[in-house]
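Sorry to interrupt, but I need a hand with the structure work. Please put the record directly below this note.
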Amino acid sequence: MGRAPGTTPGRFGPESGTSGSGRPSAARRLPETAAVLAVRRAVRDWLSRFGPRETEEQAVAVALSGGADSLALTAAAVVETSAVDALVVDHRLQPGSGAVAAEAAAHALALGCRSARVLAVRVGTEGGVEAAARRARYAALDSARHGLPVLLGHTLDDQAETVLLGLARGSGGRSIQGMSAYAEPWGRPLLGLRRETTRRVCADLGVTPHDDPHNAAPEFTRVRLRTEALPLLEQILGGGVAPALARTAEQLREDGAVLDALAAELRHTAGDGRALVIETLATAPAALRKRAIRAWLLEHGAKALTTKHLQAVDELVTAWRGQGGVAVGGGRPGSRLVAGREHGRLTLRLGEAGIGPMTQTEPAERAHHHGRESS
């Protein structure tokens, strides 16, 4: 599936690229430096675990920003796969972003990608610039990948930052599991490598990566974690903080996979059509019950679930005192999903968008209007 280090030519050099037909031109060898080989091994290992096997052609798409991480990933992917399509998202949030995107696409062709496409997106404002840009980026990548897995250049350092952000949210174990190596269609081969390795690869290749000014803007929480919090933790704790956080995330993902499998069994046992049987849920351990409820809500259209939502729905099972339904995100225009307790079942229905969520502190007569359980 992969190719032995030091034996396979890479497609790098000024004469490389693609012709109008999309066929790669003549290729050069990649330099056999420690950094280049480390990234190649990471990509090869990812492909052996998650790579496409439906056809003989092992093609992938790569999300290329023009930064060091995605450039190093692209170079390795070109060598280790049969074809790479580079997808460059232009968020249009900074002056000159179009030129940056065009340069990234040119790098992709020089590295030997089969194709390079610039995807211009419109970034909204809901949830802040970071969240809105992320939604726009992933939507554009998903629509342009044409069935291929999309490789992302997230490194161990990104993983550590993600775990710290999850800790700050206080949303439980799931929020500090970090990013997974593969969550279809998104692949992250570089989660075991440090950011400094990808920068070394670019230097070894003679490629100058783009440094996004947003990556140094202190108004972004992740930037302050990267430039202030993590260095301070490294200083206080004597180093090794980022790898330790990444190991914690990996261990929690392994534990989470087991809990998710057990919760799926509980959900199946408690299932009664579109509803869940209260008695079955109530006798289950809280960790499994909440996971089963969360999966059930998501399956039936709930969106943007928070810990507060999940806790309120769980209390319909474990702390029933006649409270009304709990409104969760989702539904149709003009309505929203409301979880309630009826006849010993946990149910979901569409409620009016103007009606607020019921809680256990509200009067029973209002709860009756919103789906109070009957005897």
Summary: The CA atoms of residues 198 and 239 lie 20 Å apart.
